[in-house]
Write a structure and sequence with these properties.
single chain, about 190 residues, alpha+beta, 10-stranded antiparallel beta sheet, 3 helices, globular
Length: about 190
């Protein structure tokens, strides 16, 4: 059985390269813009302007949050408009509530954003600010996120930078992207003085 699997492994790899890699590399069209204002060998400080998001808030980690948000951008809104997927998808926990957020393309304003059909989805603005960010590849598992969040947390405390909130998990790639090619980030909102 194992010998048979080894024969098919190159075929699976070729099929991946032909069908899934192009999909995973072109999944998103727009990334939330930012300016890097400080960089170390481990992390960077970014300044983000106000960002418009759709989000789901739950009292527990809910596996349906992504599906609800995906349905919204797939047309489950008052105009039945399909909205292009952007990156990153972020997740965080504040006061025992879990937030999952999709960033909206820059063409939308609060007034022009389609109203969600699902009342669990809210339109919100993330106010401008500074964020300390560490990048990592691999799976976007909770284990990896916790590991890199702790590394970032320790380093920014050592650098005497004040943290203003919980760790934020940011994922950039679709499920068909091989783990070594994935871009994941852990970030904290920080008090940054130039």
């Amino acid at each position: 059985m194992m010998c048979t699997m080894k024969k098919f492994l190159p075929i699976f790899f070729i099929l991946y390269l032909i069908f899934f890699l192009p999909y995973s590399l072109t999944m998103a069209n727009e990334e939330a813009p930012y300016d890097v204002v400080h960089k170390t060998d481990l992390y960077e400080i970014r300044h983000y302007s106000d960002r418009l998001v759709v989000q789901v808030i739950n009292n527990a980690s809910d596996n349906n949050s992504f599906r609800k948000l995906f349905n919204y951008i797939s047309g489950a809104n008052n105009t039945s408009e399909e909205i292009k997927m952007t990156v990153p998808v972020t997740q965080t926990k504040k006061d025992n509530e879990y937030f999952m957020q999709f960033y909206l393309p820059s063409k939308f304003t609060k007034e022009t954003t389609p109203i969600p059909s699902n009342s669990d989805i809210k339109i919100s603005t993330i106010k401008e600010g500074y964020f300390a960010v560490i990048k990592y590849s691999g799976r976007s598992s909770d284990k990896n996120f916790v590991k890199y969040s702790k590394i970032l947390y320790q380093k920014i405390l050592e650098d005497q930078i004040l943290i203003n909130g919980s760790a934020i998990k940011a994922t950039y790639n679709g499920p068909f992207t091989l783990p070594p090619f994935r871009r994941n980030e852990a970030m904290f909102k920080v008090d940054w003085k130039n």
